[in-house]
Amino acid sequence: MLNTIIQSVVLKWLLRRVLELGPIISGALTWWGALSPADQAGLINILQGNWGLATLGAAVSLGGYIWSLIATVKPHATAGGVQVPTSQMTPAKKEAVKEAVKTTAAKPTLLDKLFKR
C-alpha cells in the first residue's frame, strides 16, 4: 500500500509543491521575525482593517516594504543613466536591451568553466 502511494503521481506532485513553497515560507517567516514588535503589531492591525490602531511609523515601514517589493519585481532598464520602464521605450531601444541581455547571458559562468560545459 505504501509503495503504491509513493509511486502515485499525486504524491509526487505534492512533494514538488512542498519543495517550491518551503523557501518562500521560510523567507516570509525570516522577514516576519526581523520586524520590530511595533511593526508586527502595526501590520496585523492594518491587515485586520484596524487602520486607526496602526501607528504612523508602522504604516511608513509597511509602505517601504511594499515599495521595495514593487521596485524589485518591476521590469526596468537603464537608458542614459536613468531607469526607464520597458513599456516606455521605443521598439529600437527594447530590441537593444533584449540583445544586451542575450549577450550577457551567453557569457560562460564560473561553473561552466569549472565543469567545462
Work out the number of β strands: 2
Helix proportion: 55-70%
Strand order of the largest sheet: 1-2
Shape: flat
Summarize model confidence as the mean pLDDT: 78
| Most strands sheet | 2 strands, antiparallel
The structural domain count equals 3
Low-confidence stretches: none
Q: Treating each run of at least 4 consecutive H or I residues as one helix, how many helices?
A: 6
Series of secondary-structure elements, N-terminal to C-terminal? HHHHEEHH
Give me the secondary-structure category: mainly alpha
Distance between the termini: 43 Å
Please give the radius of gyration in angstroms: 23 Å
| Fraction of residues in β-strands | 5-15%
List its salient traits.
3 domains; 117 residues; two-stranded antiparallel sheet; mainly alpha
Describe the secondary-structure layout.
Blueprint: H1 2-6, H2 9-34, H3 37-47, H4 56-73, E1 76-79, E2 82-85, H5 91-106, H6 110-114
Antiparallel strand pairs: 1-2
Characterise the protein shown here.
This protein is mainly α and 117 residues long. The protein has three domains: 1-34; 37-74, no CATH class; 77-117, no CATH class. It has helices at residues 2-6, 9-34, 37-47, 56-73, 91-106, 110-114, and strands at residues 76-79, 82-85. It has a two-stranded antiparallel ribbon with strand order 1-2. The two termini are 43 Å apart.
